[in-house]
Design a protein that fits this description.
Blueprint lengths: L1 H39 L8 H19 L8 H12 L6 H23 L5 H23 L2 H11 L5 H7 L8
Helix pairs in contact: 1-6, 1-7, 2-3, 2-4, 2-5, 3-4
Length: 177
């Protein structure tokens, strides 16, 4: 009798262990797909939020260059933009990246407004309009992406028992908000 109970317990442990490993692996694959969507695009085509963010940092760098004749390089907004231009590509957390991008947006908006109040040369006015348009276009593209909806779907699909328990072990899906 003891041998059959031991065998049953071992079999149950094996089944539970195997099910847990399988479920967590499946959840990790789902999170990896979300991260790939965010960083590389749906078809690894680099049409992604992350690449749009990098484009925004390049536009911000161009705005800083444009501003050098009109705004002090020691201005706190200019310094923060330069810091964020360097920090954003190094940021690995999607939620931290969101916060950095929001800070960049605030400072870039300030710089655009400040440059708009200056007597820019005709060429510099045209450059400002171009950079402002490009920056807004990147924002619109990012805002129209369905990444956060995909993350919500992941959490909906894995809610309840045992999904919420397995999420403790699985990779974390981060919202871009």
């Amino acid at each position: 009798m003891k041998k059959s109970q031991t065998a049953l317990i071992i079999m149950l442990i094996a089944i539970l262990g195997s099910s847990t490993i399988s479920a967590v692996s499946s959840m990790n694959n789902m999170v990896t797909k979300l991260e790939t969507h965010f960083y590389k695009g749906d078809h690894n085509d680099n049409l992604s939020i992350y690449n749009d963010i990098i484009d925004k940092t390049e536009i911000a760098a161009n705005l800083v260059k444009l501003s050098k004749d009109y705004v002090s390089s020691s201005d706190s907004h200019v310094k923060e933009i330069q810091k964020l231009i360097n920090d954003i590509p190094e940021t690995k957390s999607i939620s931290k990246l969101y916060k950095a991008v929001k800070s960049l947006d605030r400072d870039v908006d300030w710089l655009i407004a400040e440059l708009g109040n200056k007597s820019l040369s005709s060429t510099h006015k045209d450059m400002l309009v171009k950079y402002q348009s490009e920056y807004r276009s990147e924002n619109n593209t990012i805002n129209s992406d369905n990444y956060n909806s995909l993350v919500r779907s992941y959490y909906e699909e894995t809610k309840g028992f045992p999904g919420s328990l397995f999420r403790i072990i699985a990779k974390n899906a981060e919202y871009f908000e």
